[in-house]
From TrEMBL:
Name of the protein this chain belongs to: Beta-hexosaminidase bacterial type N-terminal domain-containing protein
Gene source species: Paenibacillus aceris
Coiled-coil intervals, chain numbering: 637-667
Superkingdom of origin organism: Bacteria
Database matches in Gene3D superfamilies: Chitobiase/beta-hexosaminidase domain 2-like
Keywords recorded for this protein, A-Z: Coiled coil, Hydrolase
Length: 903
């Protein structure tokens, strides 16, 4: 047995001690007898130690490493290690030096040498190797979240308790997860919560804010302290993410406040400041991630709240702390422009970061472009570190994803196209952590099921510019160890790579949104494919999160007119997706006879490849039907008895699509509990209701009914019968009933909504046309200038539960209030009204047209405060008023959309 002596500072930081321990264990398993140096080493005495020697040191602090460098015994052929960088060197006198640019660099150097010792079963005799991360922050996000809401609490609001989150208290799970993270050289884990402070600190001034029992508080604090210490010794920051301004339920009830506050109040600012100070004092090894959008009107109050409340509390908490590194503070750019906030904050606190979503809430492309690329570039140019957030993955759920080459290109794009320097990675099934959605006797853990997802992203977050040929060999070898042979590894890698192209391509060309409003694997309705405007599509999907290309109707119009196509076409993507899906199934079948271990997981992976193929085939046949129907629409131009041959072909394609969807349903009934991890009302595509329509078996009857309706209407046309929808073109439009209310705001006045009246108290902008439903209602007018420049709140008192009709101008100009979107604000549909009930329901002289939305309010005093931007209040109607959604100009719900064919 050979002897190895380890030299290091006896007062090493916890993460250095952890690295040394990992190296010690690797050496012992390789057959070495490991000893510790008895006296500190110097350049003059280290040779007196017999046998092999390893010295481990932070070059910023270690006298011995500095001596080796100064006397040129230790030289670097790469950049000298800085920060998390390290260098391994064989030096004269049988000495191997591990030189780190920081304590984390030393840790990673120890882990790298330990890996090499484990692989070769010996200590390398000649080594000169330096390495450093290309991204500053690298780590996963874990949600202290549930799949559904808990009324009266709202979205994101879950006190931390053992019954809600038993996994949070599972130290064995955390050790496994943290060990995976340090192995992948992660340096941060992001914990997401709506308002975590009321579960972790108790304030003398606000005891009512505590949302857990004293026993639960003690357990939470003990657990969180253990977690931050365990993470710290692995070189990992724990960063706590919270929303603003969310307040605890008992605090809100005592002070008569709503759970979500749009603007700072003295009491909420004082409460938050003291909460953050107490949290930082208790947990100095934790950072903070701040979301100033959604509830808070961040464009107006963001800088004030961030600097005067959050940073003030942080600095108060750090005042007496002796932490070696100041914790990171990360500002999300979600639903806010963060530049002004950062510029105001940097003089107060230098360790600031910004964050923005990579492809929205899906994975669609490694070439993001347009305004989203501009947003990232702008954030990357600030005096901060910018992070990309690979978020939600609504189009990948629930299947396995492990296409290393796609992921590598994404990380290269993050660095070079988006100018980012950090990664924030969601698990594939975020809302149900730690469990995977697979149907199994014992729930699978995402940590094991999705190992390749984590491994690939973090490998390329460390270095995205690895040689592709070498990377292919790396992943083949990695998969070979997992499944028993190199031949199996190669075939499985091919299956992962091919399947990894399917969902990104399908969503970016045919989807409604890149947000979690859509669960792509559950399919889409014909209306969503042929009349997406009715379903509020999110243009950023194809304008930023996709390569240049054509949407379905645009493609059909160009085909009919003989115009040249530009970029990706629907036909290109259908062809690609079918090829990728076929290649994936063939590759996984090629591996079957070659797999000798982990056969259960291989069968699950095989099931995923089959499911993805069924999904692709179902989409392709439905898209072919959509192309035929859109061709019919633009060919017959209202003469609906013509070109029925196109509809006959479409019916055949729809039948094929439904057959493949039945195959998908049959397979997933055996393999999956559900398709989407977030099962709240925010899920609206393909069908409203994430809880009721969370499995293919729930959606199948909807698609069956759709095909039956299509066959019925086609048969009517073939027999010369006009379908009911065409007979009832002039269904009567009923004027809305009015609900009584009192206007309490002195800066506003009431008026009757009718042609010719002015809609603002300043200027002479008057109505030139309005939908019949609105005529005669009582509106509220106020200063357009005040609302446009600063925002304006209206106080009303409702005598009964009512709907308030709000008008949004069809313009992106910043003077107008913008409709809240579920892509940017999870609370956008809390009061209903997400979709307009009357598109272009109001026309004004020389101004943009106006869409009418209906928001639900309870009886009593209410504040209409939507933030900066001018808008209209066009009436108050009873909560049970029936409302028929329509486009007043008959473009999105008229007969020409052909939605009547499927309904």
């Amino acid at each position: 047995m050979k002897d190895v002596t380890l030299g290091y500072d006896r007062n090493s930081a916890p993460r250095v001690a952890y690295g040394i321990q990992q190296l010690r264990e690797a050496l012992q398993k390789a057959g070495y007898s490991v000893h510790d140096a008895e006296v500190p080493w110097t350049l003059e005495n280290y040779r007196s130690v017999q046998g092999l020697k390893i010295y481990i040191g932070n070059r910023q602090e270690s006298d011995f490493v500095q001596q080796l460098e100064q006397r040129e015994v230790l030289l670097y052929h790469t950049e000298a290690p800085e920060g998390e960088g390290f260098y391994l060197a064989s030096c004269p006198g049988s000495l191997t030096a591990i030189s780190g640019g920081s304590d984390s660099g030393v840790l990673y150097g120890c882990l790298e040498l330990a890996r090499r010792v484990s692989d070769a079963q010996r200590l390398p005799s000649d080594i000169a190797y330096g390495d450093a991360p290309r991204f500053s922050l690298r780590g996963p996000a874990i949600g202290l979240q549930k799949t559904t809401v808990e009324p009266p609490r709202q979205t994101y609001e879950y006190p931390i308790t053992t019954d809600r989150f038993p996994w949070f208290y599972d130290r064995s799970l955390w050790r496994d997860f943290l060990d995976m993270m340090v192995e992948q050289r992660c340096n941060v884990v992001y914990l997401w919560s709506g308002h975590p402070f009321s579960s972790l600190v108790k304030l003398a001034d606000y005891p009512e804010a505590l949302e857990v029992t004293e026993e639960e508080l003690s357990l939470n604090r003990e657990m969180f302290r253990w977690l931050t210490e365990e993470a710290d010794r692995r070189g990992i920051w724990v960063v706590l993410k919270f929303y603003n301004i969310h307040i605890p339920l008992p605090f809100a009830q005592k002070h008569g406040l709503k759970l979500h506050q749009p603007k700072p109040l003295q009491i909420t600012s004082d409460y938050y400041k003291k909460s953050i100070a107490a949290f930082v004092q208790s947990f100095p090894n934790a950072g903070l991630m701040v979301c100033l959008g959604e509830a808070l009107q961040g464009q107006i109050y963001g800088a004030q709240w961030f600097n005067e409340t959050i940073l003030a509390g942080l600095l108060e908490g750090l005042k007496d702390s002796n932490v070696k590194e100041k914790p990171p503070i990360i500002l999300r750019s979600h639903a806010i422009e963060p530049q002004k906030v950062i510029e105001a904050a940097l003089p107060l606190y230098p360790n600031l970061y910004t964050e923005a979503k990579y492809n929205g809430e899906s994975l669609t492309t490694y070439t993001p472009r347009g305004k989203w690329q501009e947003t990232h570039n702008r954030l990357g140019s600030l005096q901060t570190i910018h992070i990309v957030n690979v978020h939600i993955l609504a189009n990948l759920e629930p299947f396995r994803y492990g296409a290393p080459s796609f992921i590598q290109k994404c990380m290269q794009a993050a660095k070079y196209r988006l100018k980012a320097n950090g990664l924030h990675l969601y698990p594939l099934f975020f809302w149900d952590w730690p469990y995977a959605p697979d149907r199994a006797e014992k729930r699978l853990r995402q940590l094991e099921r999705d190992w390749i997802w984590f491994a690939a992203w973090f490998r390329y977050a460390w270095n995205p510019d690895r040689d592709p040929a070498a990377e292919r060999n790396y992943w083949i070898d990695t998969l070979a160890k997992r499944f028993g042979s190199r031949e199996a590894g190669e075939a499985i890698l091919d299956a992962y790579e091919a399947s990894g192209e399917c969902a990104p391509k399908l969503l970016r060309r045919f989807g409604i949104t890149e947000g979690n409003r859509q669960t792509m694997s559950l399919g889409m309705t014909m209306s969503q494919l042929t009349n997406p405007e009715r379903h509020m599509p999110w243009p950023d999907l194809w304008e930023s999160q996709s390569p240049q290309g054509e949407r379905l109707e645009e493609y059909v119009i160009k085909e009919l007119s003989g115009e040249p196509h530009i970029g990706e076409t629907p036909v290109d993507i259908m062809t690609d997706a079918q090829r990728h899906a076929q290649d994936a199934v063939q590759a996984i079948e090629r591996a079957r006879s070659l797999v000798s271990i982990n056969s259960d997981e291989f069968e699950r992976l095989t099931g995923d490849m089959s499911a993805i193929r069924h999904m692709v085939e179902s989409y392709v046949h439905k898209i072919k039907a959509a192309i035929l129907i859109l061709t019919y629409k633009h060919s017959v131009k209202g003469e609906y008895f013509n070109r029925l041959d196109l509809l006959e072909e479409a019916a055949a394609e729809l039948e094929q699509s439904l057959a493949r969807y039945r195959d998908l349903t049959t397979l997933t009934e055996k393999t999956y509990l559900f398709a989407n991890s977030m099962q709240t009302p925010q899920r609206k595509v393909p069908i409203r209701g994430g809880l009721d329509f969370r499995h293919w078996s729930a959606c199948l009857p909807v698609y069956e009914a759709e095909l039956n309706a299509f066959r019925k209407h086609l048969q009517e046309l073939k027999t010369g019968t006009l379908p009911e929808a065409l007979k009832n073109l002039k269904a009567p439009i009923v004027r809305y009933q009015e609900a009584p209310f009192h206007l309490l705001s002195e800066h506003a006045e009431m008026y009757v909504v009718e042609k010719g009246v002015e809609v603002f108290s300043d200027g002479d902008i008057h109505i030139v046309g309005c939908a019949e439903e609105l005529s005669g209602l009582t509106g509220i007018r106020f200063s357009q200038r005040q609302a446009g420049l600063h925002g304006l709140a209206i106080e009303i008192e409702l005598q009964q539960a009512s709907k308030v009709l709000i008008g949004y101008f069809n313009s992106k100009d910043e003077q107008w209030l913008q409709v809240p979107s579920l892509e940017e604000n999870t609370h956008a549909d809390d009061r209903g009204g997400y979709a307009p009930v009357l598109r272009k329901g109001l026309r004004l002289y020389a101004y943009p047209s106006v869409n009418i939305h209906a928001f639900q309010y309870e009886a009593g005093r209410q504040t209409l405060d939507f933030g900066k931007g001018a808008f209209l209040v066009l009436g108050v109607i009873p909560a049970d008023q029936e409302m028929r959604q329509r486009d007043v100009e008959h473009k999105n719900d008229g007969i020409d959309t052909l939605d009547w064919l499927y309904e």
